[in-house]
Amino acid sequence: MGVDELINRVMRPVADAVSEFIFFSVPVGGAEIPLIVAWLIAGGVFFTLYLGFINVRGFRHALDLVRGRYTDPSQPGEVTPFQALATAVSGTVGIGNIAGVAVAISLGGPGATLWLIIAGLLGMSTKFAECTLAVKYRRTNPDGSVSGGPMYYLQHGLELRNLPGLGRGLGLFYAAAMVLGCLGIGNMFQSNQAAAILIEVTGAEASFFSDRAWLLGVLMAVAVALVIVGGIRSIARVTSRLVPFMAVLYVLSALAIIGLNADRLPGAIVQIWEGAFSADGIGGGMIGVMVIGFRRAVFSNEAGLGSAAIAHSAVQTDEPSTEGFVGLLEPFIDTVVICTMTALVIITTVYDPALADTGITGIEMTKTAFESTLSWSPVPLSVAAVLFAFSTMISWSYYGLKSLTYLTGENRAVEAGFKLFFCGFVVLGASVQLGALIDLSDAVIYVVAIPNLLGLYLLAPVLKREMRSYRERLGRY
């Protein structure tokens, strides 16, 4: 029995049970709505309304902050606002932006794109809430490093609201789930997909790596180790250069495909609009396609999961709200821009409802869409996909580390051991088929939305006071 077969046999019952619990669905209008997705959507709607459409009103100020207009290196923290944003974006922009959008379109048709965009816009408000509170309740360690994220605002924020037991319990649960989840969705899944892409572009079955995927895993693990050994400062330096490059590479490639098929663009927009409200042939009609679009969006930009707030908490600022503004750009970049580019490429080239019945979905559909217009375009697509996977791994290593040190306390030996352990899982992920383990990790990651959003609701008055105080001092928003 192989390692992958053993892992799947042992983990499958656990993965199925946890997934069934997390993704429990209720029928609404002929469609099945996973309650966890409804919970995440509700968070986006609530904070958009409660904070007075901060996702729209604060957009320009967010750009000013990222450009460094208000940056002061003397303020507490470890990274600049741009570096914090780049690190967080690198954690969300991944294979899902390429493969996940194709899955949404194959299941829900072009109309899923509109709901995906709307979910991204709503998620901007949730990110604002998460990142503001992450900075407000972060902790500065004796060595000058910073620790923050949902586990800290859950514990310390709720403690100040006379709920110490609840806050500590939610914080512990959140951190433990993130440690487990980071090894799957933020590690093994990424290395597995990156290895598959590299094997494909180097000759598929004829590739030197076709039966040596472990070697690709070792190479990726070494690359990851070289970055994460230096902590958040090293990660931020790499992501601040890597994220703009890979995002521009992918967007320009997508715009080239869309431009060469410009005559089909008006029709694609019509399909998106009409499909969002009619969705003929889609199970559950309009409700069904809405759920598909929202689900792919919230699973892509992670708004409501609180993961990115761990990176944002390390920013150099003494104004928590500033990082809230910076954070709201993340779902815009991830979902509104990059996911929409993917959708338009697919719809203007190869989209056909019959594709869903032939098994052509996910990254294969996106690759086919690019290749149908420019035969060489799968090369930059593959480069972007591998970079997306690599950047996600280095960011999630930091998320996992900070979650672990919340549980164990700051300890250099623990940090070194975790980094070594994390790199070992990069090799494992590239080497074996890990269906059950990835399913379990995927489910565990999304369960953190329950304590995170519960804490955000309870801390909403604190959040609003913080935002108003900042607005009064700034004289805007």
What order do the strands of the largest sheet run in, or round the barrel if closed? 1-2
Runs with pLDDT <50, length 5+? Answer: none
Number of helices: 23
Question: Which H/E pattern describes the elements?
Answer: HEEHHHHHHEEHHHHHHHHHHHHHHHH
Task: Describe the model.
By secondary structure, this protein is mainly α. It has one domain (3-474): Amino acid/polyamine transporter I (Up-down Bundle), CATH 1.20.1740.10. Helix content is 75%, strand content 3%. The chain has helices at 3-22, 35-50, 54-57, 59-66, 81-92, 95-108, 112-136, 150-160, 164-182, 184-201, 213-228, 231-260, 265-277, 285-301, 307-312, 320-327, 329-349, 362-373, 378-408, 412-431, 435-447, 449-458, 460-474; strands at 25-28, 31-34, 139-140, 146-147. β1 and β2 (31-34) form a beta hairpin. The chain is globular.
SSE inventory with pairings:
Blueprint: H1 3-22, E1 25-28, E2 31-34, H2 35-50, H3 54-57, H4 59-66, H5 81-92, H6 95-108, H7 112-136, E3 139-140, E4 146-147, H8 150-160, H9 164-182, H10 184-201, H11 213-228, H12 231-260, H13 265-277, H14 285-301, H15 307-312, H16 320-327, H17 329-349, H18 362-373, H19 378-408, H20 412-431, H21 435-447, H22 449-458, H23 460-474
Antiparallel strand pairs: 1-2, 3-4
Helix pairs in contact: 1-21, 2-7, 2-22, 4-16, 5-12, 5-17, 5-19, 6-14, 6-17, 6-18, 7-8, 7-13, 7-14, 7-16, 7-17, 8-9, 8-22, 9-19, 9-21, 10-11, 10-19, 10-20, 10-21, 11-19, 11-20, 12-17, 12-19, 17-18, 19-20
